[in-house]
Amino acid sequence: MDSKEAIKLIEQYQPLIRKVSFMYAKNSAEADDMFQEICIQVWRAYSQFKGDSKFSTWLYRVAINTAISWIRKEKKYRFEDKDDKKAFIVHDDTPFYVEEEKKEQISALYRAIKKLNDVDRSLVLLYLEDVAYAEIAEILGLTVNNIKVKMNRVKKRLKKIMDNDK
């Protein structure tokens, strides 16, 4: 496993890394910095990837752990730029045919997700990416049953947050 392979895989999985960065960052500048940090950590840790799981599973784990570590380390320096519209816009990969009203609903969902704790936010991110419960359990180090229970609770919490934000 060489660094050229790692670079190719990082390039291939950029959208996944960007989504994790977006989900944990408070603003677009922080998301860009976090994206770089995740890429560096993936590149550094690539030699430890043994192929025991899918690469995407391993990558999610590295990306989420890096993002959470970033937040904990930078907490006292973090700020939320209320004028930074990029912090809450729909991802660039949202299909062009999505109506403006739907885009606002999606943005509202992302704003609500950002109010969740780190584990719940990771859970929702993986769920929205259609990652199977078994793989989510492996990434987060929980049981499948625990994932199912947490997901039901998180859905209720998100609905409540979104209802309160109306």
Shape: globular
The stretches of 5 or more residues where confidence is low (pLDDT under 50) are: 78-98
In terms of quaternary structure, the protein is single chain
- Rg over CA atoms: 16 Å
Instruction: Quote the distance from N terminus to C terminus.
Output: 50 Å
Main sheet makeup? none
The residue-averaged pLDDT reads 82
Number of helices: 8
Structural class: mainly alpha
* DSSP strand count: 0
User: Which percent range fits the helix content?
Assistant: 55-70%
**Relative strand content:** under 5%
Write down the domain tally: 1
Question: What's the helix-strand series?
Answer: HHHHHHHH
Short synopsis of the structure:
This protein has helices at residues 3-12, 14-24, 28-45, 55-74, 100-113, 118-128, 133-140, 144-164. By secondary structure, it is mainly α. The protein has one domain.
Question: What's the topology here?
Answer:
Blueprint lengths: L2 H10 L1 H11 L3 H18 L9 H20 L25 H14 L4 H11 L4 H8 L3 H21 L2
Helix pairs in contact: 2-3, 2-4, 2-6, 3-4, 4-7, 6-8, 7-8
Describe the structure.
The protein is an all-alpha fold and 166 residues long. The chain has one domain (3-164). It contains eight helices and no strands. The chain has helices at residues 3-12, 14-24, 28-45, 55-74, 100-113, 118-128, 133-140, 144-164. Helix 4 (55-74) crosses helix 7. It is globular, with a radius of gyration of 16 Å. It starts with a helix and ends with a helix. Residues 78-98 have low confidence and may be disordered.
